[in-house]
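4.2 Preliminary Data

To establish feasibility before requesting continued support, the project team ran the inverse folding procedure on a target of 353 residues. The structure was first converted into the token representation described in Section 3, and no sequence information of any kind was made available to the design step. The complete token record follows.
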């Protein structure tokens, strides 16, 4: 009989549902414990997923030697301390993105990984998606040549979730650290994870959370409070890499734009491709430009399948059968990029590395 991995989930908010559902669907994972500051919420998830152990203090949870690994699904300000404590307790960690709030925290997590000998997998879920996996095979075989330019957009016209998302102390920032982390990481990963040379960024707080808007619904955090919002509405940046490549990005919680937009495009010497909104390839053959549409189940990101693939991969890591696609070192580099954009915006100058 194959070994099962006993899993504890810390944080029972909305994103935990994706983790819990995916673990439930993996035959080698056993949902063993759940923890949340709100005991009622933790018990509700425990009942739904038949989880035998409920905690309100993650330090007490980590004392249980039966737990093999944890998912960290808390506010961003909990990612670093909980991950470090779990690593020190000898647990593998799947930490939701972003890895933490600051570069200093990221380096501390990296050190804890090194000392523990355990794996921390950063929740860059789009790395595990089928459309990413397919195009990565093309890249690795040189079909696009050197990728020298990328554009990433994730624009919401009305979508500040409020609550902890709009509280900079708990979140570390707004759409850049919440949404931008996904599309920036996806581009950076597919570009070959080049070293950053410089960043020029801007952030804007012009529209607030637009809680005055009527007749148009959007997702709101469980602790939504229209009175509290101290994060940016919009961020944009030009990121230059040491190999000469560049990345242009813009993200927003709210913007006076006609409709929401997500777009991820990369361009190489031999061809280009879009990952979002749908996977498509542009290439050239016999002096003719070709637009190619792969025949696959999901041309765009499948949220449920993406999380399942991510969790399945993590269980493989815990069993020693796989290496993670999103190691702690990449989480550190991504924090350098995100914090570099915020620093450039605050100082009004280009930040050089």
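Position-by-position output of the design step:
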């Amino acid at each position: 009989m194959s070994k099962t991995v006993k899993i504890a989930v810390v944080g029972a908010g909305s994103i935990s549902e994706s983790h819990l559902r995916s673990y439930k669907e993996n035959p080698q994972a056993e949902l063993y414990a759940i923890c949340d500051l709100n005991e009622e919420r933790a018990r509700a998830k425990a009942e739904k997923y038949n989880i035998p152990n409920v905690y309100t203090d993650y330090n007490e949870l980590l004392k249980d030697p039966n737990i093999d690994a944890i998912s960290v699904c808390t506010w961003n300000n909990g990612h670093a301390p909980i991950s470090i404590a779990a690593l020190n307790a000898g647990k593998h960690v799947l930490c939701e993105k972003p890895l933490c709030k600051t570069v200093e925290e990221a380096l501390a997590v990296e050190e804890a990984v090194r000392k523990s000998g355990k794996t921390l997998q950063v929740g860059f879920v789009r790395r595990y998606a089928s459309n990413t996996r397919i195009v990565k095979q093309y890249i690795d075989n040189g079909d696009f040549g050197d990728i020298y330019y990328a554009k990433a957009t994730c624009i919401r016209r009305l979508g500040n979730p409020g609550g902890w998302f709009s509280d900079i102390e708990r979140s570390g920032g707004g759409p850049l650290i919440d949404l931008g982390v996904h599309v920036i990481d996806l581009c950076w990963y597919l570009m070959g994870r080049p070293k950053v040379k410089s960043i020029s960024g801007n952030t804007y707080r012009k529209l607030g959370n637009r809680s005055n808007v009527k007749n148009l619904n959007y997702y709101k955090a469980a602790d939504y409070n229209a009175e509290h919002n101290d994060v940016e509405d919009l961020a944009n940046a030009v990121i230059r890499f040491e190999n000469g490549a560049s990345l242009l990005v813009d993200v927003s919680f709210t913007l006076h734009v006609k409709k929401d937009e997500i777009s991820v495009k990369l361009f190489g010497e031999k061809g280009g491709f879009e990952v979002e909104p749908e996977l498509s390839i542009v290439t050239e053959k016999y002096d003719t430009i070709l637009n190619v549409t792969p025949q696959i189940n999901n041309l765009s990101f499948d949220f449920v399948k993406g999380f399942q693939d991510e969790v399945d991969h993590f269980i493989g890591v815990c069993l020693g059968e796989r290496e993670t696609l999103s190691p702690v070192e990449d989480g550190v580099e991504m924090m350098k990029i995100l914090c570099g954009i915020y620093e450039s915006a605050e100082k009004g100058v280009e930040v050089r590395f």
